[in-house]
Amino acid sequence: MKQISLGQTSLDVSAFCLGCMFFGTLTTQEMAYQLADRYFEAEGRFFDTANNYAFWINGATGDESETVLGRWLKSRKNRDQIILATKVGARPTQPGGGRESWEGLSARAIERAAEGSLTRLGTDYLDLYYAHIDDRQASLEETLTAFDRLITAGKVRAIGCSNMMTWRIEQARSLSHLHGWATYCCVQQRYSYLQPRAGATFETQLAASQELLDYCQEHEDISLLAYSPLLSGAYTRQDITLPPQYHSSETEARLRALATVAAETGVTPNQVVLAWLLQSTPAVIPVIAASNPTQLDENLGAVHVHLTGEHMLRLNNPDL
Hints:
Pfam family, one: Aldo_ket_red
Shape: globular
Helix content: 25-40%
InterPro entries: AKR, AKR_Detox_Biosynth, NAD(P)_OxRdtase_dom_sf, NADP_OxRdtase_dom
CATH class: Alpha Beta
Strand content: 15-25%
Order of helices and strands: EEEHEHEHEHEHEHEHHEHH
Strand order of the largest sheet: 3-4-5-6-7-8-9-10
Oligomer: single chain
Largest sheet: 8 strands, parallel, barrel
Radius of gyration: 19 Å
GO cellular component, one term: cytosol
Protein name: Oxidoreductase
CATH topology: TIM Barrel
GO molecular function, one term: oxidoreductase activity
Number of helices: 10
CATH superfamily: NADP-dependent oxidoreductase domain
CATH architecture: Alpha-Beta Barrel
């Protein structure tokens, strides 16, 4: 699998990142191992989790994903071959708690969460540590100095952010540059081929805006990752309803363009979406997920899909 530089760090990551959100909850440990093995066999080395996955599932605490991934790493003895990413900020501090009980991004919360993640993952360092949310209750200075201390201590190699407005990302990065602190090298937002209608919101999730795309194109030291790139299967599965946020005047035209390009290239619409992300400007790293090996194989197959300039033009300008 192709390797991509993460921002301008020393980290080279796989073109597709494996999302492990439901490991240990909706995805059993046995199936999680199968998926992780299959991804690793395809030369995938970039794993994504969080310290709160997936607390919202009945009976879950948020420990599950990191714990199962940590067990897999221990059983396969391949930690030194993996780029391991996890997140902090959105874990409830009390069982069943909502957004009001999230741990946030204070220095104390970050330091405590890092120790918990290191323990569950069975490692002594994290390759990439994300601010999972934008915590306006904690100052950027406090958050960034806490991350910087973790890097100085050798517990974290690089930091990123998620679900954060572009102006806040720039503000944080400017502070880091000013003070010589570690800088966010990547941002992970909701992003797919279909675009949300103007004004659409996703509760706690933040979709990538055109402003963010322009920002990442102009700043080579920050990479963009896309979560939910396949809209939970809505592109191809009849039993999955397209989220209402994507009902817009442009949606039907984009779906027609997607179907046409898929037919011309002999691949699935899902594979076209993933290939489109990789070949876009700026290039986007998809965070893929699957509930079984067949789904994962379909996703991984998109690495080998080449979209011509004409295909990209048609996808980007579906009304032409």
